[in-house]
Amino acid sequence: MPAGRIHPRRFHPMPRFVRVVVALLAVACLAPLSAAAQDAAAPVRRNNFPIFFDFFGTWRGEGVVGGWPSKIEMTWAPVIDGRFIRVTWKNDMVSKTGEPSRFEGEGTYRPMPDIEAHHNGTWFYSQGMSYALVGRVAGDSLATTWTQSSGAQGRTTYRLVDRNTMIVRDEMLRDGKWNSFGLSTLVRQPAKAASPTD
To answer: 3-state DSSP call for residue 117?
Structure first.
């Protein structure tokens, strides 16, 4: 037999059903890799946690917190490739004697709820403490409970009045009842246009 020729009896082409099985196995092996790659780069999706989309941006306004008049700035934004949502809070207050005071805080939420529909997170504030956050969405509101090191429990509720107006209420739990200690009205600020050098 000349070199390079294959004897017909020694050449057994792969049966058609075997080729189909091999192709299906290849697709099955590649599918998880493709899904993982898409998940790693997946953007924040509105239909998964719409309340945070509605909060995104900077809000400013006034209110009364702890009996002190307050000027407040709050910002909500996605961070770490949209895996978390960050809220920052700045509160400039004036005491009854005219003494100024500033409170600052920053919280980070997991936008995807857990099996109990809670949005868990952590809050840090300027007095050097941190609290665990448990947020619950109800309609146009996000109610977040937090517990102080003393065991006292508080709650902050962010409620959208309309697209550009938000009411923020702070409460403490005493004798089984929620008592308000802060109430502010904030207005969404226009987004800043990016400069040509940005």
So the answer is: coil
What residue has token string 């902050």?
Answer: 156
**Whole-angstrom distance, CA of residue 59 vs CA of residue 72:** 8
Name the DSSP class of 198. -
Residue 168 structure tokens: 């923020």
Largest pairwise CA distance in the chain: 110
Is the CB of residue 70 less than 8 Å from the CB of residue 64? yes
Q: Which of 119, 181, 126, 184 is nearest to 158 (CA)?
A: 184
Q: Are 149 and 129 in contact (CB under 8 A)?
A: yes
CB of 92 within 8 A of CB of 68? no
Instruction: Write down the pTM of the prediction.
Output: 0.72
pLDDT, tens digit (0-9, with 9 covering 90-100), for 53-72: 899 999 999 999 988 899 99
Per-residue model confidence (pLDDT) at position 2: 47
Write out the two tokens for 53. Answer: 């989309």
- Encoded tokens for 74: 């709050």
73: tokens are 């700035």
Tokens at 59, concatenated: 């809000």
Q: What is the DSSP letter of 37?
A: H
Statement: 50-188 belongs to CATH 3.40.50.300: no
Tell me if 172 sits within 8 A of 182, measured CB to CB: no
Q: Where are the domains of the chain?
A: 8-40, 50-188
